[in-house]
Amino acid sequence: MITVLKPNVTAEQRDHLIDWLEKQKVQVHISEGSEYTVLGLVGDTAHIDMDLLASLDIVQSVKRVSEPFKKCNRKFHPDDSVIEAGGVKIGGKNNFCVIAGPCSVETREQIIGVAQAVKDSGADILRGGAFKPRTSPYDFQGLHGEGLLLLSEAKKATGLPIITELMDMKDFDLFEDVDIIQVGARNMQNFEMLKALGRTDKTILLKRGLANNLKELLMSAEYIMAGGNNNVILCERGIRTFETHTRNTLDLSCVPVLHQLTHLPVIVDPSHATGHSDLVPSMALAAAACGADGLMVEVHNDPMHALCDGAQSLTPAQFDTLMKQIRKVLEAIKE
Amino acid sequence: MITVLKPNVTAEQRDHLIDWLEKQKVQVHISEGSEYTVLGLVGDTAHIDMDLLASLDIVQSVKRVSEPFKKCNRKFHPDDSVIEAGGVKIGGKNNFCVIAGPCSVETREQIIGVAQAVKDSGADILRGGAFKPRTSPYDFQGLHGEGLLLLSEAKKATGLPIITELMDMKDFDLFEDVDIIQVGARNMQNFEMLKALGRTDKTILLKRGLANNLKELLMSAEYIMAGGNNNVILCERGIRTFETHTRNTLDLSCVPVLHQLTHLPVIVDPSHATGHSDLVPSMALAAAACGADGLMVEVHNDPMHALCDGAQSLTPAQFDTLMKQIRKVLEAIKE
Amino acid sequence: MITVLKPNVTAEQRDHLIDWLEKQKVQVHISEGSEYTVLGLVGDTAHIDMDLLASLDIVQSVKRVSEPFKKCNRKFHPDDSVIEAGGVKIGGKNNFCVIAGPCSVETREQIIGVAQAVKDSGADILRGGAFKPRTSPYDFQGLHGEGLLLLSEAKKATGLPIITELMDMKDFDLFEDVDIIQVGARNMQNFEMLKALGRTDKTILLKRGLANNLKELLMSAEYIMAGGNNNVILCERGIRTFETHTRNTLDLSCVPVLHQLTHLPVIVDPSHATGHSDLVPSMALAAAACGADGLMVEVHNDPMHALCDGAQSLTPAQFDTLMKQIRKVLEAIKE
Amino acid sequence: MITVLKPNVTAEQRDHLIDWLEKQKVQVHISEGSEYTVLGLVGDTAHIDMDLLASLDIVQSVKRVSEPFKKCNRKFHPDDSVIEAGGVKIGGKNNFCVIAGPCSVETREQIIGVAQAVKDSGADILRGGAFKPRTSPYDFQGLHGEGLLLLSEAKKATGLPIITELMDMKDFDLFEDVDIIQVGARNMQNFEMLKALGRTDKTILLKRGLANNLKELLMSAEYIMAGGNNNVILCERGIRTFETHTRNTLDLSCVPVLHQLTHLPVIVDPSHATGHSDLVPSMALAAAACGADGLMVEVHNDPMHALCDGAQSLTPAQFDTLMKQIRKVLEAIKE
Prior knowledge:
Four copies of one chain form a homotetramer. By secondary structure, the first copy, chain A, is α/β, with parallel strands linked by helices. Chain A has helices spanning 11-23, 50-55, 108-121, 145-158, 191-198, 214-226, 254-261, 270-274, 280-289, 316-333, and strands at residues 2-5, 26-32, 37-43, 59-63, 83-85, 88-90, 97-101, 125-127, 162-165, 180-183, 203-207, 232-236, 266-268, 294-298. Chain A starts with a strand and ends with a helix. The interface between A and B is large, with 49 and 49 residues.
């Protein structure tokens, strides 16, 4: 950590600060310039409160050299984490993982039908929302416990592991049969929930917040891991920009960046990111081409009820075509 | 609600949709153009799932004409809401309310000392964090229950009502003596928490999320009010932009905009928005000048312990000077 | 174009507005609701000043149904535009075009060396900056006319067409030998320059501005085409977001979106978008996988002068490897 | 300037870099840590190409300690710049300057009428657009030379100095009678135009770009001043955010920040920022309260032609009321 002092700092003030820093078990290297004094802090600086330090009257600026995240940091864990959930491997070479299913669980027929269809096309895991985060209190909020039971039935019927979103720890006990718990984008910085999940041994898929950067995403992963739960999967699902033709902007460059910074797997959700089913295949192929560890794709099988045709959902037939193309792209980029 | 159909929609598809809409108790006015068909939906459209409608294959676009929020909407409640908390009135003409206090509760001496100081300068309510949302799991997370007890002591000692942040409903019972519960920016769309707070009768100060727009802020207020709790205060605390000289960008134009859209009071927090104490007075005066219903300002009294000098906190002396200037500005804009 | 009137509009005001609209040669369809009146405008609405209309006291909101861009609109020109520059085809099926070269032209040896290297690896067009837009007036601004002469020499030596940026029409005459003129991101809305280029017959590569949406990009293309010059190539080079690990955020979903909206070719520049050479190959492959019409990639050959090792430039060897991978991905996505 | 080297850098590489830096006339202070080496660069670092330095393979990160702008930097020019234009002083204590007038010059009657009205209410300078930057090539682009002549007539009739926007240096000669040349937000980084204006002695009002930060704004001012023209006024006119109730988001905290960073005057334009006349008074008062050096406000006098009622323009009567309130607020904040 580099700390630059303001020009007019007295020797007494400087020594007072250095004293305080050394009490926190970091070594301080002083570099006096003609205009500025620079303190180089070495040692375990992760517990230094950077905001507090930057707020001192005598400090001009503070800059971290080493990242504040440790458990998810690739530096201290060079090999890819391979996370198992319901017998499926996520992360690492040649474990490309496809999660597919409807936005919401609606009926037994729907969820089992989609589950069977996506399994036939090669999906590894079934998704389906039972608790739905909605901007409006007047919108459909999901089937809740009943939805979870239907998901379990689909799991039993097809053998696919299941992933679904948890919105409040009070419902945690209902998720016993769930293989992967999803933390939604709006809860990425619900720190109390992250801490509580860190004390469980469930596999967590952590979605990036709509306006959060990658450091913040990794700090939220760190919250879970600091509690002892290392089963964390990261998910890019689009960020908020000024573009309106897509619901959000899929930040695919986060895939190679996250692979540099962390050993955790990185999954891409092109359905929520774009919000339009006709954009999903292109972005799914791009995600595969740039090295993502998997995809989360919305699929519905509702030809009779066209009114519920989710704008961002593929039909099973479209999904089947996409899976074939993805396999070709994965083959093409194999080293 | 205006729904534009795609050019190639058949009469059968159109009638199918109209049928579905009318079943949801809205009237449909059809306007056929040479290129497009426009459906005007009239009636109680708040419960129509706009995303679902927009996602239909035959729909080009959907636009709300009336706002989807009802209980916080000024149209249905033209008079300013005046909310009472601990005997203090917030909202309405001539009730400018100043909330002041330290970022975190640290010690009995600190919190009682600051409470007395800000009361002497004219503050109406005491703030102080006991549960602190921090980006890093390794940063100081607050004194929790002990902090709440110290806040209560300061309340008893000075008579000032108190406001502090709640991060998880599991801690709610500890907040009995708290007059206003703060929902932090990162929890603005923690919908389960909003619902739970809606079932209480506590006064809630709802902070705008770092990348949320005003419609989303009002929908979150609506979540609380839909549960029956109308005691909601809105708080602007800066939004994320590309500017780095300030921690966030204070969006003061939200004050007159919110006053048009809603009857709820609007408080401005210049301390968190700017992150620098030397910018706080200017922005506090600007907030008063543009019609805010009050301010939330960080103040500390820690001359002996300069290391905890929060970059964004005013000293009691600076706060006292600011209070005098604010009174002059309030007088100047009085009609 | 849909115009929603405010609830309290009188019949006289409404008729006054309709009268004014009809004088501008658009037909008006009236749809009276119980709360709102909706006017559907049909005909040539491209010349209606939407901002002006929205600004009227009696108007609640205005929404375009048809896009305001015409000449670049795929609706009126369903086939892909294939643009030729220096014998190279850009756009259309199976014309994937690779533009490569150094950020700045530095010396004869450098530019001819890189040109030969990228040609050998399969590049189609040589890039190199002679006029450099720099945020600071004290930074290197390019070799100007001398740089253009060196580019011409490299063109003669290798047969590769050349592309370089124009920053001011006063320098236009120097660009006679240049095959494609680049309009930089910061000049995307330099409307006078766009108009002037519209009166030439040069091929223009128009880069998207750092905070511009796709509609604005297409309106800027429309500025050039409205003047009679249809030789326009669009280029995505990253947009400004809150992420800091990459210089900008490459918005790859713009590729399929632009292909829906326009017939113009879409090129992707992963070098400027990411700012880091180690991220360029992943994003180049992703761009190829999602259907881009080509790439613009920075390559330098400066092993002796490591200090000028542009963070975002590939070495010729890295570029050669990338070209082989790109060919495999292009093969994989072939229908 | 602080440069942090990567952990694995050899002594030879380090010395090579130091050698290169010292040749550029900066002194280098080395601070060796156990993990990182930090180089502190002292001296005239403004001409060091920070991007180039950061791009070197051996460099981890670079951070400027001193700002890269010099001529507009308050450190080297502690007193406020007071700029005179047409006899009016802008900047410095007690020179609050109000610029008012219509968005576009339309007719002789209009511009002279508005000029007389705003003068009577206390405006100091007349604004009016003759060259209009429009997103669409099909929108009204202004009266050009004819508009400038009408502005001159209004100047002669009222004695008010005039300000209007220049979009291309080819039109510069037409601006002889113009007292202040406005550089629009979309041209803030049209570096060639800034350089050309730097070689003139015209007073320039430089508008902040829609997605530019304050450092970039100051670097653009530096472009003008580096050419020898010190008559630069900065103007905040709103930045692009995710909020849609206002056209842009007025960043008022930039006023005290810019006053810290630079000696140049800072003017606020609430009309373009908000896009709604009913928000203009609140934001104008807020701008006055936080210390802006003046305002630029749109006013029209077009009661007969309600259709041209610009959404963001005040009527002369509204402007007159606003001027009275502003005077009260200015009085209230006087020290």
